[in-house]
């Protein structure tokens, strides 16, 4: 890694490797690299794309069991409880291959076994090399370079021995063990013994059999009584002695092993190892801070060492400090970093193998201990305790894990969600009120009834301007804040409502609708973003869904208002009151939003740390299940990554820089494809054609009170959106769509079947039907249509009506606003198409074939979701975005 980084800086370096060739010996098991250490180094070395070819994000299943195979701790990939993507697995041999192939040929000199270092001279078994500015010892546990730095630094035995075994072609040779491992890791323990089985990329299982031994030379034949490299002797010894009391399923992992058997003893350097700087010489990796493998941090710390040392060397080439001054600063930093990880590793070793009650005690420790994300791979896999560690709540309680006291969001975050949700009410009201308006306006806007084209233009103009404004809303949300965009949207809502109420022509009415469309476009983008960035991860799905409840509630209010004014109001002015009343909620929200806080993510991005901390504290209340410092660190890390990404593109800090970033990286393009696909599907499935034209449809069918009949559809939508509140986080986003879209398809096909019994002749049918109020035929056909539409609406409300608005989960902070804005624009673009084409399609194709067309769209959408949409329920925003680092993230 160090050689690669120095090569990128144009600094000459030579690697002297003791092994004869890259594949000289087995490279051991699988590694998990962590976000701000190992993965950061891979990105700095420009090896990220190569790394992704071999990284296994599907290897995050983890089970801790006892010797009887009782599961004490389980983490399931895809159940929404893990932070997937933070610690991808990669085989050690693959990582070594990536690194060795990344440097120019000849930079690595193989077969150069070091005997000692004298000054700036390297003395090998058969040669001597000299003339170096800096010698870096990365020669492992028994480092010769370390002896030149400080001869007193000697590895200490920790009382633990192990065998490294392999099960090749495990699915064929050990299928039951494969099932237990589940493509991830299985840690089995009894007091003083440990069995670790991990999935490897080549289909084999890596097995580490660990036990306590007093003598570091325990593997010598005169001490253990067997040839410790003879696999058959070793298996017999282990199964008859150390692991004799273990269950057969776990013993199979030992008996199924084939190939080489490698015995080892575990040694460490003293915790807090440090030395006086030696000019021209330093150490990194195990040579500097040898530790046991139980924290999973050795390779991550070593890669971070290489990354920071390369930076120090580059600084010396370009800055005021000398090389030794920079190396001294690097060493002092490394001593601090390494001490924390050494202590962690030592604690975990003692807890696994020397603590009475293990592994039950370790399961407790794993869940209750909180620490810096970069140091918690085997404790929480970079996951907050508040997001749930255990598959079984009763089991967690039995072990003594503190459960959150309440599964409800706090009053403060609920109040903010309700206040922001008024925008959803306005959105829904506008969608619903136009249905009643179109059948009530009569000749108020011209000397004739409105044509299908007039109605399509009036209806779709809102969607068109929502489409145009959404992308600009994302830019404003980044520059001015989420809160201020909501204020501007309220002003537009208020102005648009007044213009519509006073309009006397189709043109003026359309202008008012365009202004309202601008408000809807801004609000529909910023409100879900505002709620998502405020909400705790465990409640985010339900809180964002509350916005959808407000939307559907607004539609219900609109239909009630429409029915009241149609039935009891003045035919000349009733519709004006319908559209004008939309300004009332806007005025109320405008007054409330002025006192609402900004989101902590935007505040941190703007450097307002104290304000962000205050908001996070108020949002989470006094809950003991969250760590405010950890939440702050997580957001700060993402903000720093964004800043680094922007700074790494000199000359790209213009308006277009963020858009370039959105389209230049694969993970961002994947997020955009999913978000835009879901938003497009939400509209192209035809739902809003029912909202805009339900009164028109029920007039055609022959209902005597089409506006009142439309109210039943709106109420169905509202009720089932509330149902979605209890399901969206529990079932998950992906699964709920896969359950509900087939039901939507059935509803559409049943509607098409019902329409086939209704006689509609000329293209003027719709217009004539509205004039007479009875073009269709009631009875069975009308009942089929009404019931099937209600079935369609109910399934839509539970799934597709809510899930696309979770789009901000998919994007990292650096492109979240722009990605969400473009996805929202896709929604409004599709909405515009549906609003403009629905009535012409009804005339051109017939109602039956129009509904069949929407059913075909649903089938295509189902296939898309099945293929590319991963589960994000329960993940923090930062974790959910990591799912798309390596691909589509679907398991």
Automatic annotation (TrEMBL):
Q: Does the keyword Oxidoreductase apply?
A: yes
Show the catalytic activity. myo-inositol(out) + H(+)(out) = myo-inositol(in) + H(+)(in)
Alphabetized UniProt keyword annotations: FAD, Flavoprotein, Membrane, Oxidoreductase, Transmembrane, Transmembrane helix, Transport
The record's annotation in InterPro entries points to: FAD-bd (IPR002938), FAD/NAD-bd_sf (IPR036188), MFS_dom (IPR020846), MFS_sugar_transport-like (IPR005828), MFS_trans_sf (IPR036259), Myo-inositol_Transporter (IPR050814), Sugar/inositol_transpt (IPR003663), Sugar_transporter_CS (IPR005829)
Q: Which SUPFAM superfamilies match?
A: FAD/NAD(P)-binding domain, MFS general substrate transporter
Q: Which GO terms describe its molecular function?
A: FAD binding; myo-inositol:proton symporter activity; oxidoreductase activity
Q: Which Pfam family is one of this chain's hits?
A: Sugar_tr
Write out the similarity annotation: Belongs to the major facilitator superfamily. Sugar transporter (TC 2.A.1.1) family.
Instruction: Write the protein's name.
Output: Major facilitator superfamily (MFS) profile domain-containing protein
What organism does the UniProt record list as the source? Answer: Clonostachys rhizophaga
